[in-house]
Amino acid sequence: MALVPRLTLLLVALCSLLAPCLAANHVFTNDFIVKIQGGDNELAHRVARRNGFINRGPVVGSADEFHFVHNAIPHARTKRSILHTRKLKADPQVHSAFQQLGFRRVKRGYKPLKVENLVPLQSIHSDRDPTDPYFDYQWYLKNTGQNGGKPRLDLNVEAAWAQGFTGRNVTTAIMDDGIDYMHPDLRHNYNARASWDFSSNDPYPYPRYTDDWFNSHGTRCAGEVSAARDNGVCGVGIAYDSLVAGIRMLDQPYMTDLIEANSMGHEPNLIHIYSASWGPTDDGKTVDGPRNATMKAIVRGVNEGRNGLGNIYVWASGDGGEDDDCNCDGYAASMWTISINSAINDGSNAHYDESCSSTLASTFSNGAKDPSTGVATTDLYGKCTKTHSGTSAAAPEAAGVFALALEANPNLTWRDIQHLTVLTSKRNSLFDAKHRYDWHMNGVGLEFNHLFGFGVLDAGAMVALARDWVTVPPRYHCQAGIYQTPRKISVNETIEIKIETDACAWSDTEVNYLEHVQAVITLNASRRGDVELFIVSPMDTKSMILSRRPNDDDSRDGFTKWPFMTTHTWAENPRGTWRLMARLNSETAEEGWIKEWTLMLHGTREEPYAHLPVKDPHSKLAIVKKAHQDKKI
Q: Which residue range or ranges hold the P/Homo B domain (predicted)?
């Protein structure tokens, strides 16, 4: 555990190296991070006033860094405010001052969505089913084959409800464009203490009005988690007795590192789960991720949030479709977040789904025969919708399932939630409609898919296992090897680079049972989008860590210490030979160079499931435990 700070510094350093090349056209905001020499908030106020700034308060998690704003500077401009920066730096009590860059963050939803008025209770339901009028449309909660769906292909939430778990005492924060906290389906489950508006800096994260209802995104996500049950309004939330908080941070021309960091570090002991249905632009050519302050906030959240158990960060994997790769999204591909993809109601992938090896599991978005049949949930101004969609809809569903698990066992750590996700997600009927990605078995018998991760979340199975769960052993981080001899990549010719490792055996950072694997890679190419990368574990599990992206024509930036990540080797023994395979998939003459590859292994020294009872001999838990015993890992 002592290695956590070292890894934090490594990741922050990676972000610092990446930040300058993430945007070709810089935009500068009127926000500054200012470090005060031995300062407190009162001193920061005085420093701000005498230099013409307003002090918005300390940066989350920092004792001496403060958020300064200058109202005379435009919110977004193409030139740096050199005079204002120099004035701050000249102040004897200012250690450093950095003007914040602005960058794009987009909501994940694949088309404009329809809105419907509230309807009265229309039919009589059995005692077992909620009586909410839209429950029959919530096929992802109970799939009976409606709208051409496959019966029983759902989140199995009724099994969790039947065990008595509805999300009590758990708060999920929706980091988005605000939520309609006066909505009759949300207001009784709204956690005002845990909410904040970082766009307007006040405690009222209500969405800003637009004629096209563009800012309905967060309200729709909130209803999926915490909409009340049996109140005659809209549908029902997955964790309908849980609380929901609004963190309004997405509704502005440009995002800043400060706003993201403050959002992800807001009230970490009141908030259990942070749900994010947004990310870098899904255009198939962007490579982007969290900056310095944001990365530090996430790492601090998983290490210190929830009074040391760790906050859970749920992320939508992206809506860029087959021409994009979510391993180029540094939020979804982070090992600190849980990346969630989506399926539609017949089990196939949605056309907007991105694929990548960092996705942990999947939930649901659209109907198959009727694509306009999406997720039924709350909407702005007290209304309802049946057409929320995209991986925007998938991530809050996962947050709701995790809220049920946290009620079943409030002592679950952020890593326990990831282990539970791997062990209880089901292949069910999920399939790739274009037959590109089959299901495979890793070295310890866990099935995975490049689109769907370890399968669709199963709320009933997750809460059942959570009740008996024994917290997994401490996690260690092993730098398993580094390759620094440049290798040329050619068209349609696969090169292979090997690293032999003992996984830090007999050291303080020994890893015998894997969780996440990172391939930190520096490369460039005459056309970055044609590069394909694979990593093969010593137990012969092959993961595609970068797929071809036909829209990415970058020839300058490439990847600089970019941490590609895979979950596919979960629970494997990492000791032996790892292979990195690279090729250029192109019909034209292109070339590239791999300059550096660092292999990072993250996992436990001790067997993670040794003390868990096996109740079902056919379960994933039983399969993995037997594999560990047979292979004597």
A: 471-607
